[in-house]
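All the exercises in this workshop are built on plain-text protein records. There is nothing in a record beyond a sequence line and a structure line. A learned vocabulary of local backbone shapes supplies the integers on the structure line. The question running through the whole workshop is how a given chain folds. Here is such a record, shown just as it appears in the course material:

***
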Amino acid sequence: MNRRNILKISALAVLAFSTIGMSHAQKSIVVSSTTSTEQSGLFKHLLPVFEKKTGIQVKVVAVGTGQALDIGRRGDADVVFVHDKVAEEKFVAEGFAEKRIEVMYNDFVLIGPKADPAKTKGNDIQAALQKISNAKSTFISRGDKSGTHAAELRYWKGAGVEVSATQPWYKETGSGMGPALNTASGMNGYILSDRATWLTFKNRGDLAIVVEGDPKLFNQYGVMLVNPSKHPHVKKAEGQAFIDWIISSEGQQTIASYKVEGQQSFFPNAKK
């Protein structure tokens, strides 16, 4: 075989491998989700199972729920996986998704100094917040329009307390759950957290759970495919494959099997 033919065959081989590589690279999706699902370690547990089964790679953009929904509105994600039912239903009503599917739940907990200077300990979140307000004890708010922030504001409203960053005891961080917990640890203040992120948080300092078990602290997660009618470039087939898997028996069992310090962090509840 002459040199010209060898070069021709080599060039064809390179082209073939390049085409295969491009095809493989295209089999991926972007999921905009929350810092709680990312920082709790759930995605590190979940995604390798999905990727091995389907060959679809998942890039997670972990931000607050409000920002995650805005990413979906812009068409910069294929799937949105968040935890603010009211905001999610609005997202659907605006036509950015055709439907919202419930996936799993856990709960929020109120974290505070072990000494509990505001005497909040118990299972009533609104009563606890009233006591924090009355005592002017330091409270750390994420202040980032996340699902956790939205829940916190609902609890303050239910407690009949108006909060503002102008109040010296009420501190807004504008950050994700992990960094906000770091701030609370550094200032020895109170903070609302999802339980899963708290379980994985190591820099606890003198903090502990002071309020848990209130039915109001229920924390539901939902998933939505960004509407291809709004954004034609959305990877509908791959995005739907992710949703179908996460609500399947295998996906739900994988969620249930994720534990931190021996405790189950999320509880699957997709409707069959």
